[in-house]
Amino acid sequence: MVAIQGKAVVVTGGRRGLGAALVDEVLARGAAKVYSTGRSAFSDDRPAVVPHALDVRSAESVAALARTAADAEIVFNNAGILLPGPLLTGDFGDITETFDINVFGPLRVARAFAPILAANGGGALVNMHSVLSWLGGAGAYGASKAAIWSATNSLRSELAAQGTQVLGVHAGFIDTDMVSSMAADKTSPAEVARRIVDGVEDGALEVLADDISVGVKAALSGPVEKLFVALPV
Ligand SMILES: NC(=O)c1ccc[n+]([C@@H]2O[C@H](COP(=O)([O-])OP(=O)(O)OC[C@H]3O[C@@H](n4cnc5c(N)ncnc54)[C@H](OP(=O)(O)O)[C@@H]3O)[C@@H](O)[C@H]2O)c1
C-alpha cells in the first residue's frame, strides 16, 4: 500500500499512450516528481515532470535513468511494443525484439531500481502485462506478456524482503496508438490508469483492468483450447 502523495515516480513510456495517462493520474494524486520517458528527448511543460530519454533494450540507458531517478519510490514498467506476426513464419528479429523490449526491458528496469526502491523505503514496482498473457493467438506479443507475468510473480517474492509492493496489470484493448489499427471495444487509457493507481494505493498485487481480463482469468481452469483469441489485425 503506497500513497502517491509526495512520491517520486518513474513511468517508462510516459510520453504517450497508457504511460501518459499514468503520468497524469499520479500528478493528479499529488506525486512530487514524475520521471517520464520516451525513446528520444522530449519536453513537458509541467514542473513536476522530468522527461528522460530511455531505451529499455540498453542496460546503459536503464542505468542512466536509475542515476537520474535515484529518489524513485514507485516505478511503472509500462513501455512495450506490439509487432504482429505469426510465431512460425513471422520475422524472427521481430520476435527477439519483442522479448527484448517487453520482457528483458522491464527486467533491466527492475534490477536497476530494486536497490533504489529499497533505499527509499520499499515502494512499489508495477509491471504491465495483458489479457494476452493468458490467451494464444497473439504470437510473440502474447508469449512476451506471459513471460513478464511470470517474471512479475517471481520478482514479488524476490523483493518481499525489502518491502516492495509488486503489482502486475492485465488489460484488454486500451485506446492507444498500439492498437489504433484494430477494430475492437477499447477502454480509455485514463480509466485503466485510474484502476492501476487505485491498485498501488490499495496495496493490490494484481489489477484486472477490465471485464475481459476478469473473464479470461476465471477461464484459466477450463479447457486450454478456449484460451485463444485471433487478434483483429
Ligand atoms: N494498448 C493496449 O491495448 C494494451 C493492452 C494491454 C496491455 N498493454 C501494454 O500497456 C503498455 C503501454 O502500451 P500503450 O498501449 O500505451 O502503447 P503505445 O501507445 O504504443 O506506447 C508505447 C510506449 O512504450 C515506449 N517504448 C517502446 N519501445 C521502447 C523502448 N525500446 N524503450 C523504451 N520505451 C519504449 C514508447 O516510447 P516512444 O514514446 O518513444 O515511442 C511509448 O511511450 C505496454 O506494455 C503494452 O504492452 C497495452
From TrEMBL:
<comment type="similarity">
    <text>Belongs to the short-chain dehydrogenases/reductases (SDR) family.</text>
</comment>
<dbReference type="Pfam" id="PF00106">
    <property type="entry name" value="adh_short"/>
</dbReference>
<protein>
    <submittedName>
        <fullName>Short-chain dehydrogenase</fullName>
    </submittedName>
</protein>
<dbReference type="GO" id="GO:0016491">
    <property type="term" value="F:oxidoreductase activity"/>
</dbReference>
<dbReference type="InterPro" id="IPR036291">
    <property type="entry name" value="NAD(P)-bd_dom_sf"/>
</dbReference>
<keyword id="KW-0560">Oxidoreductase</keyword>
<dbReference type="InterPro" id="IPR002347">
    <property type="entry name" value="SDR_fam"/>
</dbReference>
